């Protein structure tokens, strides 16, 4: 987005700025038409003497000058003689002959006039606008300071610097470089482990570049800006703003980046995946790109208008993203500056005009397909394989019916030596093999893996601990009125509780309590291995087992309710809740083995497999080969539930499969009408005012040869024709922009005559050629940039570069710019210790302030805050509601995603300060970080040190360490939280240096 | 939003600080092509949903006389209705059930729905001939706010924040308040900055909790805690500045300090505690609950504090049915506060530099929708009424007219772009000069149109 202001009173400033951008001296002899003259004509003359035939005056067009340059007296332009050029006299006139006419604005500046004069004097040669000439690989010559060069990028930059008597800046500090690299590639700061490995130089720079480009978070980070361009959102926009499932498209984008899909394929699948031969589901999902357009309900005659708006949006987006052309200007009339006629616009329109528009009345929509989400697919596969296994090996379970004593003994022996062998048949709803807990953090179970316990259940596990108060399994927080069930040792210091013994609480309501309390009578905290278990037969019994033996003296109070409340708390293993949304108390210090949770009541024996006595008994019997009646009964009891279980399980898997196979996600895709719509020029952009009939076609400017017929697919393929002057340049420019704040062309969506001239034209062309010659390898371009010396410079500004290169367009240093809202929040989430690194999936709803979006339409659905765990997902997954976007994102310059944006604004406002210091989630993450730091050490200096490393990815210097330590000591109890907030809000933290 | 240190980056990039300073300086120096402003602030009373012009400010005796007869075909040729089914080709005319009387020295007619505003009629310039083609709510609101029915363009407030900056540092330049009964949604795009930098977007004043989102410190963090945090931050930031020499850091320090001041001042400005009982009564503020009355009084306080542009959305005007009852209660809720606002601004000498605008996204059809006692009126963009007051507006004026039924704008037709051109003119801005280069084109609020309605301006 070009953000030059054009208020007349600051006009002069911008002229000087523009001159600075093209640091051409007016009196030089090598005036180039395309670079120097065309921009002047564009600015002053095109409105009346440009490509738009409807506004053209006097039949003079300066965008197509050749007929007017003639070596005759009184020509419009006579090469070699300004005096004999009519044009010259008109631009220097001071009377009513002056061009542009007084009422059309200011006269040309002296510099501009001089440029034109010199151009005429030197022959008035007409060259084409640079961006319309296909790029060729520029040659690399020798330059000074060769040693600095690491790859060709550096050569081009150095050449420019030399021209301005500038030197590159020194390399940035090591810690800054690592943070820069991590944030630029993955959107996240480096982890503590990465910092350590980097410090001990386990890889060289190139190795680190490859390392970060290989991380899955690379795809997530790249997706953010692509989703801005794709105007990805979770709602339809306009007043209705209905929810729509587009997240599979987001998954597609992330995966495409991570698998480094070549840019041509990446493009073709998104623009026309549906038209490929036998498109895969993934290719169809890719076409969601152009189905992200907004969609109104359309209850009236404007239905067609909204359909047309959707196509206008698709053209605008295609123009911005692939062509760097402002095609939208030709919607109502011929383009005033660039050679795109209105007819060409509608020819392009015809290419995109064949998507079916389905539905009626309020249910207007385009083509959609039903897709099974990755999670559902995984579950289906799981159920299928389980079923196959069960059906294929009936004998194994049927064998349990055996009467052969030797076989029974051998089996008992095998199982008693490996209790896990039994678990396989028991089919737990959740199983964890081994956990080692330090007493400071619980193990959280993902939402989708959490068993749904609403009535009967049982839990068993081996533990070894000395704790007298610790929660083993919990979804229970009475203080915050979120009760469900908890199984542990002690009883949270309840006066009735028995420290060191087992306990269970369960409640039918989250609040108030209604349920059962059971306190055990056998201590389990002697630092020996014990099998502990609880079994609840809803409405009937609640039992505790230690080492497979029923605790008969356990004391039950309350009521054996028929159901258990479902609290929103994540299922926590080895830690409990004390008025908190995350486990914060009753942590277990010790070990857990063979934990299993079942959605049905089992006995302690079935849960544990074997008591120690039984174990010995079986050993002895196995050795002697004599099966006692006791052991036979034991065997029958043990296997009874397995035998029932098999039938039950087959039924359950079959049922699950039936249910899962209908759990589709509906996604919007493109489709092409078999019978194309007739397209007409819309006179003055009014769709009801039909002009000439037009047929699919591509603007001549693209020099795009493609297969016939002209349609979306051939258009998309044609973009990758080597003669297309724009596609490669526009793409590499956007990549460049990620690393330097500005593109080589500062107007990434406008490479036309009104766009900025490239700061390094040769570099742009070199990268463009490199891009297509590498087979459109995106990571290759990223790698080149990251490995360049230019990239690794310091971003600190020295006196010389401040004077000569204030905006850093010459790249005499690295750029320093504020991070995106997503990155800023993610740094905090990442440092909290609770970061959820799951890739992809449906959008999540972080806590947002009350009242936000309260006036949205009822059709827009509600903001149902996601689970605690999901509060720690990357910002990329935050639900994007166009008509009421997540407030903090908006304050930090995220677009609403109503329309395509290829460069966000980057502002610096007091409301950002308020959001970053006071937003609920930012507070929560700060609290988490403070807690993490507090637990890491009792030494304040060490805590400060860790906070610095987590947030700023560096260690404090001695001055800082002293200042922060003093601050912590001087302030109140939660001073660590205050310090963490300070760190999170530092310019250094919000900035990519 | 606020004036802040000019960083070099901001010249190339995006910030209003620079522009506002430039603009204000040039205004002060009387240079540039900008005319002297007659208004410094704008209060835009937006009746969201579309108030009926023929029941409020545009009396139509012919409509009353022929009420119940089908509208002549010539009036509805090529007219689309939003909700009246297309099978009803000539719906019936429906006269207003409300009486009109003439008021003030100007004798401007106002219906009995606005008895209090009627007493202020000599301050108003009533424009009865606004028209457009946009007849759905959200495109029409966009059109009134941005000059284009599609999303993506900056709203008036954003243009003003960008072009003129703010007159206070303690409040945002562009504040939005809401009230009323939700019959139609309010969308954040109504106060969007479009393609202007996001700092120019409107800030919604919240009706409960802290007045501005994120204004309050977390629980247990007091002002001295925050001060000490800021001191430590400043020390660190300055240290960083000495190393990097990046002036953006100084801007950041400034923004955090401003936020700190805003935390102190904004709650005061947005509270009615300092208002006398008499004032509260004049506006009709009855309790602490959010209301249009409260918003009007807050709007005055914001003008006092220097806020550039304040937009009040009153919801509930979309009377497709039960119009007599719904409009009566809508008007009852806004009539007294509007009158009080105009009077109050005048008494405090603030009306002369505050432009007050009243209107909806369209009017309502002079033809009936539905029937029986539950009759209503459909959306009607072809001719409707807006009014302006204060800020250099010639009071007691009636400009333009609709036809005998109030259907089509007839004399002195006013485009939405003309309204915008006039608003900018009162602020001393030539609408053709407030432009922004975006996607290769200089965009402006008035798009390619706009004509200043000189007749409603004081000479």
Describe this structure in words.
- The complex is a heterodimer of chains A (993) and B (459).
- With 993 residues, chain A is α+β, with helices and mostly antiparallel strands.
- Among the domains of chain A are: 8-127, no CATH class; 433-604, Sandwich (Jelly Rolls); 920-992.
- Helix content of chain A is 39%, strand content 11%.
- Chain A is built from 35 helices and 19 strands.
- Chain A is elongated.
- With 459 residues, chain B is an alpha/beta fold.
- Chain B has a single domain, classed as 3-Layer(aba) Sandwich (Alkaline Phosphatase, subunit A), CATH 3.40.720.
- Chain B is 34% helix and 18% strand.
- Chain B has helices at 8-12, 16-29, 61-65, 73-76, 115-119, 137-146, 156-164, 223-244, 247-269, 277-283, 292-305, 323-347, 416-426; strands at residues 41-48, 100-103, 108-111, 124-131, 174-180, 203-204, 309-315, 354-359, 363-369, 376-380, 384-389, 397-399, 401-402, 409-411, 414-415, 435-438, 441-444.
- In chain B, the strands form 5 sheets. In chain B, strands 1, 4, 5, 6, 7, 8, 11, 12 and 15 form a 9-stranded mixed beta sheet that branches. Chain B has a two-stranded antiparallel sheet with strand order 2-3.
- The chains are: A alpha+beta (993), B alpha/beta (459).
Task: Reconstruct the topology from this structure.
The complex is a heterodimer of chains A (993) and B (459).
Chain A: H1 11-21, H2 33-44, H3 46-49, H4 86-92, H5 110-121, H6 152-163, H7 174-186, H8 192-199, H9 205-214, H10 216-229, H11 247-258, H12 263-272, H13 281-286, H14 303-323, H15 342-351, E1 368-372, H16 374-392, H17 394-398, H18 405-417, H19 420-426, E2 430-438, E3 443-445, E4 457-465, E5 470-474, E6 485-490, E7 498-507, E8 515-523, E9 530-537, E10 541-546, E11 549-550, E12 555-558, E13 571-573, E14 589-598, H20 604-608, H21 612-624, H22 629-660, E15 664-668, E16 679-682, E17 690-694, H23 712-718, H24 727-740, H25 761-773, H26 778-787, H27 799-804, E18 817-818, H28 821-832, H29 887-891, H30 910-918, H31 920-936, H32 940-952, H33 958-970, H34 975-985, H35 987-990, E19 991-992
Chain B: H1 8-12, H2 16-29, E1 41-48, H3 61-65, H4 73-76, E2 100-103, E3 108-111, H5 115-119, E4 124-131, H6 137-146, H7 156-164, E5 174-180, E6 203-204, H8 223-244, H9 247-269, H10 277-283, H11 292-305, E7 309-315, H12 323-347, E8 354-359, E9 363-369, E10 376-380, E11 384-389, E12 397-399, E13 401-402, E14 409-411, E15 414-415, H13 416-426, E16 435-438, E17 441-444
Parallel strand pairs in B: 1-7, 1-8, 4-12, 4-15, 5-6, 5-7
Antiparallel strand pairs in B: 2-3, 4-11, 8-11, 9-10, 13-14, 16-17
């Amino acid at each position: 987005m070009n953000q030059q202001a054009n208020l007349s009173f600051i006009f002069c400033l911008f002229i000087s700025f523009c001159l600075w951008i093209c640091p051409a001296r007016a009196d030089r002899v090598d005036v180039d038409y395309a670079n120097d003259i065309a921009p002047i004509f564009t600015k002053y003359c095109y409105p009346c003497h440009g490509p738009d035939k409807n506004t053209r005056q006097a039949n003079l067009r300066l965008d197509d000058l050749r007929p007017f340059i003639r070596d005759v007296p009184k020509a419009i332009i006579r090469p070699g003689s300004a005096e004999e050029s009519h044009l010259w006299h008109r631009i220097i006139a001071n009377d009513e002959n002056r061009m542009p006419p007084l009422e059309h604005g200011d006269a040309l500046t002296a510099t501009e006039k001089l440029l034109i004069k010199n151009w005429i004097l030197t022959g008035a040669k007409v060259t084409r606008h640079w961006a319309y000439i296909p790029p060729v690989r520029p040659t690399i010559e020798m330059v000074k300071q060769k040693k600095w060069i690491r790859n060709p990028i550096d050569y081009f930059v150095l050449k420019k610097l030399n021209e301005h008597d500038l030197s590159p800046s020194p390399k940035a500090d090591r810690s800054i470089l690592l943070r820069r690299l991590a944030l630029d590639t993955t959107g996240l700061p480096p982890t503590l482990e990465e910092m350590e490995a980097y410090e001990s130089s386990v890889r060289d720079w190139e190795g680190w570049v490859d390392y970060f480009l290989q991380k899955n978070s690379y795809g997530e980070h790249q997706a953010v800006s692509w989703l801005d361009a794709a105007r990805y959102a979770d709602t339809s926009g306009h007043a209705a703003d209905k929810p729509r499932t587009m997240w599979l498209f987001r998954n597609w984008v992330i995966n495409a980046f991570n698998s480094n899909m070549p840019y041509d394929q990446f493009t073709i699948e998104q623009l026309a995946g549906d038209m490929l031969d036998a498109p895969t589901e993934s290719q169809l999902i890719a076409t969601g790109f152009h189905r992200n357009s907004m969609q109104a309900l359309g209850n009236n005659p404007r239905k067609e208008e909204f359909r047309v708006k959707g196509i206008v949006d698709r053209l605008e987006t295609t123009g911005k993203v692939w062509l760097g052309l402002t095609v939208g200007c030709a919607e109502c009339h011929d383009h005033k500056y660039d050679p795109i006629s209105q007819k060409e616009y509608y020819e392009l329109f015809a290419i995109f005009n064949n998507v079916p528009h389905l539905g009626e009345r309020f249910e207007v929509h385009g083509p959609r397909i039903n897709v099974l989400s990755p999670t559902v697919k995984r579950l289906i596969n799981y159920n299928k394989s389980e079923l196959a296994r069960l059906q294929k090996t009936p004998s194994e379970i049927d064998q349990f019916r055996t009467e052969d004593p030797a076989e029974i003994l051998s089996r008992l022996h095998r199982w008693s030596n490996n209790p896990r062998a039994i678990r396989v048949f028991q089919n737990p709803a959740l199983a964890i093999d081994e956990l080692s807990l330090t007493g400071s953090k619980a193990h959280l179970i993902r939402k989708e893996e959490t068993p749904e316990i609403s009535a009967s259940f049982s839990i068993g596990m081996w533990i070894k601990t000395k704790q007298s108060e610790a929660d083993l399994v919990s979804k229970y927080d009475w203080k915050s009125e979120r009760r469900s069930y908890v199984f542990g040792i002690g009883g949270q210091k309840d006066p009735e509780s028995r420290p060191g013994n087992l306990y269970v609480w369960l409640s039918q309501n989250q609040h108030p309590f209604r349920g059962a309390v059971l306190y055990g009578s056998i201590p389990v905290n002697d630092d020996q291995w014990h099998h502990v278990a609880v079994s609840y037969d809803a409405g009937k019994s609640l039992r505790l087992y230690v080492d497979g033996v029923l605790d008969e003296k356990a004391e039950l109070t309350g009521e054996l309710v028929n159901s258990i409340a479902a609290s929103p708390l994540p299922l926590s293993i080895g830690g409990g809740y004390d008025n908190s949304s995350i486990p914060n108390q009753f942590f277990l210090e010790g070990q857990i083995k063979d934990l299993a949770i079942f959605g049905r009541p089992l006995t302690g024996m079935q849960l544990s497999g074997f008591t120690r006595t039984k174990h010995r008994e079986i050993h002895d019997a196995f050795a002697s080969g004599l099966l006692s009646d006791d052991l036979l009964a034991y065997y029958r009891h043990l296997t009874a539930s397995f035998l029932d279980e098999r039938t039950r399980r087959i039924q359950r898997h079959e049922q699950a499969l039936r249910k899962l196979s209908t759990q589709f996600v509906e996604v919007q895709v493109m489709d092409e009408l078999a019978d194309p719509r007739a397209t007409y020029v819309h006179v003055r952009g009014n769709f009801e005012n039909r002009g000439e009939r037009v047929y699919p076609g591509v603007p001549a400017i693209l020099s795009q040869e493609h297969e016939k017929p002209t349609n979306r697919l051939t258009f998309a393929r044609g973009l990758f024709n080597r003669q297309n002057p724009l596609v490669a340049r526009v793409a590499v420019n956007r990549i460049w922009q990620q690393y330097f704040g500005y593109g080589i062309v500062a107007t990434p969506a406008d490479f036309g005559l009104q766009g900025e001239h490239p700061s390094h034209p040769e570099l742009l062309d070199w990268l463009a050629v490199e891009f297509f010659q590498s087979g459109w390898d995106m990571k290759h371009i990223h790698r080149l940039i990251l490995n360049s010396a230019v990239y690794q410079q310091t971003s600190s500004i020295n006196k010389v570069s401040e004077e000569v290169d204030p905006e850093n367009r010459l790249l005499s240093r690295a750029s320093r710019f504020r991070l995106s809202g997503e990155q800023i929040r993610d740094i905090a989430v990442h440092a909290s210790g609770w970061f959820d690194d799951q890739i992809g999936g449906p959008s999540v709803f972080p806590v947002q302030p009350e009242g936000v979006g309260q006036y949205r339409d009822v059709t827009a659905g509600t903001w149902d805050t996601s689970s605690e765990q999901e509060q720690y997902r990357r910002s990329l997954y935050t639900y994007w509601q166009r008509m009421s976007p997540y407030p903090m994102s908006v304050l930090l310059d995220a677009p609403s995603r109503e329309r395509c944006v290829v460069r966000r604004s980057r502002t610096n406002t007091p409301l950002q300060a308020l959001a970053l210091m006071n937003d609920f989630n930012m507070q929560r993450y700060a609290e988490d970080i403070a807690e993490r730091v507090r637990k890491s050490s009792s030494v304040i200096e060490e805590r400060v040190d860790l906070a610095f490393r987590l947030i700023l990815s560096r260690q404090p210097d001695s001055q800082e360490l002293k200042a922060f330590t003093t601050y912590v000591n001087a302030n109140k109890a939660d001073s660590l939280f205050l310090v963490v907030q300070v760190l999170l809000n530092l310019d250094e933290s919000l900035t990519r240096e | 939003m606020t004036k802040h240190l000019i960083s070099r980056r901001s010249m190339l990039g995006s910030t209003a600080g620079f522009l506002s300073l430039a603009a204000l300086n040039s205004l002060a120096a009387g240079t540039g092509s900008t005319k002297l402003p007659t208004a410094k602030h704008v209060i835009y009373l937006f009746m969201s949903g579309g108030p009926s012009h023929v029941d409020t400010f545009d009396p139509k005796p012919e409509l009353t006389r022929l009420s119940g007869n089908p509208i002549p075909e010539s009036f509805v040729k090529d007219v689309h209705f939003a909700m009246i089914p297309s099978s009803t080709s000539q719906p019936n005319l429906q006269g207003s059930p409300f009486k009109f009387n003439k008021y003030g020295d100007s004798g401007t007619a106002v219906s009995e729905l606005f008895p209090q505003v009627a007493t202020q009629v000599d301050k108003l310039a009533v424009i009865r001939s606004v028209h457009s083609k946009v007849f759905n709510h959200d495109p029409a609101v966009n059109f009134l706010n941005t000059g284009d029915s599609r999303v993506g363009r900056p709203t008036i407030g954003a243009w003003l924040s960008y072009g003129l900056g703010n007159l206070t540092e303690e409040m945002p330049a562009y504040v939005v308040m809401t009230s009323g009964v939700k019959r139609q949604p309010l969308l954040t795009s109504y106060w969007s900055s479009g393609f202007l930098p996001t700092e120019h977007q409107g800030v919604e004043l919240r009706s409960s909790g802290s007045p501005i989102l994120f204004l309050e410190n977390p629980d247990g963090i007091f002002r001295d805690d925050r001060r000490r945090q800021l001191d430590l931050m400043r020390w660190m930031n300055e240290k960083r500045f000495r190393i990097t020499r990046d002036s953006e850091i100084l801007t950041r320090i400034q923004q955090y300090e401003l936020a700190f001041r805003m935390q102190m001042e904004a709650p005061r400005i947005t509270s009615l505690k300092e208002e006398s009982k008499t004032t509260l009564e004049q506006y009709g503020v009855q309790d602490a609950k959010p209301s249009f009355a409260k918003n009007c009084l807050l709007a005055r306080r914001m003008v006092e504090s220097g806020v550039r542009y304040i937009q009040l959305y009153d919801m509930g005007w979309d009377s497709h049915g039960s119009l007599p009852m719904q409009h009566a209660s809508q008007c009852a809720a806004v009539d007294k506060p509007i009158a009080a606002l105009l009077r109050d601004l005048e008494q405090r000498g603030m009306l002369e530099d505050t432009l007050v605008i009243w209107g909806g996204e369209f009017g309502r059809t002079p033809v009936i929708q539905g029937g029986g006692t539950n009759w209503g009126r459909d959306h009607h963009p072809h001719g409707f009424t807006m009014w302006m007051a204060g800020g250099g507006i010639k009071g007691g004026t009636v400009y333009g007219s609709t036809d005998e039924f109030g259907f089509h704008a007839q004399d002195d037709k006013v485009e939405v772009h003309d309204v915008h051109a006039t608003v900018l003119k009162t602020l001393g801005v030539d609408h053709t000069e407030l432009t922004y280069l975006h996607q290769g084109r200089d965009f402006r609020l008035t798009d390619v149109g706009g004509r200043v309605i000189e007749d409603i301006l004081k000479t």
